[in-house]
Write a structure and sequence with these properties.
This is Resolvase/invertase-type recombinase catalytic domain-containing protein. It is a single chain. This protein has a five-stranded mixed β-sheet, sandwiched between helices. It is of the alpha/beta class. Helices cover about 25% and strands about 15% of the residues. It has one domain: Resolvase, N-terminal catalytic domain (Rossmann fold, 3-Layer(aba) Sandwich), CATH 3.40.50. α3 links the parallel β3 and β4. It is globular.
Length: about 160
């Protein structure tokens, strides 16, 4: 048995998307990264025609590895972050899962490695990871006589009263 850390390569292609990095390109780049990190690449979790909106645990191949085979690898290697998670919630969930299960998460293109101390905080600090669909922290309130959506001078467009701000 090898003393090398074991890596799982993750390949995902979206449903009907022509303008994306192909399966073979992802496999090749992930294999090269595993070699560079001196890791044994145990297998690939390949999900073809699977949307990134699906949770990693619900994907046919990756879900099986995360739920049932977690003891068979030490690191997850992806070509790009959007191959494993597109939403901030899914990215945060997979990072927390990796930390809780002692797994590293390595991205070939974004240049981070969560198994190394210098790589841990970087994905959470990226500007794009802060983007979310905006939802107010409190429900909008209406003032009598002023329908929501109209803007009076000095008032916020989501109709909060001055007392509620």
């Amino acid at each position: 048995m090898s003393d090398k850390p074991r890596a799982l390569g993750v390949v995902r292609l979206s449903v009907g998307n022509e303008n994306q990095t192909g399966e073979e390109t992802q496999r090749t780049r992930i294999s090269k990264r595993a070699d560079a990190e001196e890791m044994e690449l145990v297998d690939f979790a390949v999900d073809i025609d699977v949307s990134a909106s699906i949770s990693p645990w619900m994907r046919p191949s990756l879900g099986d590895w995360l739920n049932n085979k977690r003891d068979q690898f030490d690191h997850i290697i992806i070509l790009k972050i959007d191959r494993i998670a597109r939403s901030v919630r899914h990215l945060s969930d997979i990072i927390e899962w990796c930390e809780a299960n002692g797994k590293g998460l390595i991205s070939c293109e974004e240049g981070f490695d969560l198994s190394k101390p210098w790589g841990r905080p970087s994905p959470r600090s990226w500007p794009w990871s802060q983007r979310r669909s905006w939802t107010p922290s409190r429900p909008a309130t209406r003032r009598p006589g002023r329908p929501c959506g109209r803007r009076a001078a000095g008032r916020a467009a989501w109709c909060r009263s001055a007392a509620g701000l």
